[in-house]
């Protein structure tokens, strides 16, 4: 896919991987609309020339706001990148159930709802894609992040099934599986972190080359380990 001239909706585009993807997409000539919920970051991205929609995707009202703001305009690529990490570790005490609900909605329900809203519109365009950003932890979980891992695994399986449903259409369904990336979300994570610029570039490369999956960085190693022994792959990640 040639990204130049494409109209792209990128959720979670004010920070981390999303912000870097937005910048790289713009450099490739795409028309990028981003979403976020932090007012200062939204303002900063608008200052860089992006259209930025304020929407909290951790609940249905926020997703509906985004859909309404988009209006009737066309769309070529939907990138479901927005995500939340929630502390859900019973070894530290009783987790916040409401925070877990927000994480489930942002990471899984929102992408499903946005896909449902835009898939027929995507079918009208000559060359389109839905890109779901999951995680290496969608393959094998980490004990300290059970809700995050569950939502990303859920989105992975949704993506696999959606790809089969849409295989006879013009819509490419792509899954991006980043490793641990050097973003604010991973502050305090002791694992080696991939530069955000490299991760964003790998995702865009997968879109341009119409790949079904982008196994990025250490996720490639994890996928090999899973192919040999899923139990071994889980034993590597579960302790983190």
Describe the overall structure.
This protein has 240 residues and is α/β, with parallel strands linked by helices. It has helices spanning 16-27, 39-47, 60-70, 97-123, 146-165, 196-208, 218-228, 230-237; strands spanning 7-10, 31-36, 51-54, 77-80, 128-133, 171-177, 213-215. It has one domain: Rossmann fold (3-Layer(aba) Sandwich), CATH 3.40.50.720. It is built from eight helices and seven strands. Helix 1 links the parallel strand 1 and strand 2 (31-36). It is globular, with a radius of gyration of 17 Å. The mean pLDDT is 94.
Name the poorly predicted regions.
none
The CATH superfamily is known as NAD(P)-binding Rossmann-like Domain
Q: Over the alpha carbons, how many angstroms does the gyration radius reach?
A: 17 Å
Counting H and I runs of at least 4 residues, what is the number of helices?
8
The secondary-structure class comes to: alpha/beta
Q: Could you tell me the strand content as a percent range?
A: 5-15%
Oligomerization category of the chains in this entry: single chain
Q: Major sheet, described briefly?
A: 7 strands, parallel
CATH fold type: Rossmann fold
What is the CATH-assigned architecture?
3-Layer(aba) Sandwich
Shape: globular
Give the topology string: H per helix, E per strand.
EHEHEHEHEHEHEHH
Mean pLDDT: 94
Write down how many β-strands occur, each being a DSSP E stretch of 2 or more residues: 7
Q: How do the strands of the widest beta sheet line up side by side?
A: 3-2-1-4-5-6-7
Helix content: 40-55%
